[in-house]
Amino acid sequence: MKVYCVVLFLVAIVAADFYNSKFDNFDIQPLLENDRILLSYTKCFLDQGPCAPDAKDFKKVIPEALETTCGKCSPKQKKLIKEVIKAVRERHPEAWEQLTQKYDKGQKFKDSFDKFLQEE
């Protein structure tokens, strides 16, 4: 019984090292294909508009993900995040600037996050 409890404890710790796996299956295509949807997520993150349930969940982890350079992101989540950020940076640089001002005002994480975005 003790061994079973220890194993469960270790599984819980390992599972806590990553964000919820539901983010792995998030369909980013609507965001990439529709600027209105992409900007609605951006406005949510900036506290400038309402948040869809998924956007609200993402918004909660932005500060930690930025601070840890996506340290708790699964490989799939990292790929999805990079694709969405690339779309925002290219198509809406003003929104990207607002996001960086809100979440990294002193640009403390800029270099490490830029490096993360360039990784394959």
Task: Give the tags.
7 helices; 120 residues; disordered N terminus; 0% strand; OS_D_A10/PebIII_sf; mainly alpha; signal
Can you describe what's shown?
Helix content is 68%, strand content 0%. It has helices at 2-15, 29-33, 35-45, 53-67, 75-91, 93-103, 110-118. It has seven helices and no strands. It has 120 residues and is an all-alpha fold.
Give the arrangement of secondary structure elements.
Blueprint: H1 2-15, H2 29-33, H3 35-45, H4 53-67, H5 75-91, H6 93-103, H7 110-118
Strand content: under 5%
Q: How far is the N terminus from the C terminus?
A: 44 Å
Order of helices and strands: HHHHHHH
> Given the helix and strand composition, which structural class is it?
mainly alpha
Shape: globular
Rounded to the nearest angstrom, the radius of gyration is: 16 Å
InterPro entries: A10/PebIII, OS_D_A10/PebIII_sf
Keywords: Signal
Pfam families: OS-D
Signal peptide: 1-16
